[in-house]
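Chain A, query sequence.
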Amino acid sequence: MTSSIWLNDLASYVLQAALLVGVGALLARLFRLRACTLFPQLGVHIGDMITEQVAQQVRQMVSNFDAQFRATFHTDEKGNVTLVIVGR
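Chain A, predicted structure.
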């Protein structure tokens, strides 16, 4: 392998890596901005009691906000509930 081919390959890999990092940073920023607009609308806060009715309302709000998202709730052995919003 000659040095010119090696340098061309290296430059291609560096460009691809930079592109992936840049796109990843943009997507992370986009989702952070969207999360900042969604969370205040949910009406639930750390320490709130989550009933089945509240959970259903949160699921509906998340779905209405963006059909690509869904809300799930996980309960640990102490009864603590964690809200997780994931993409479909």
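The mean pLDDT is 83. DSSP finds two helices and two strands in the chain.
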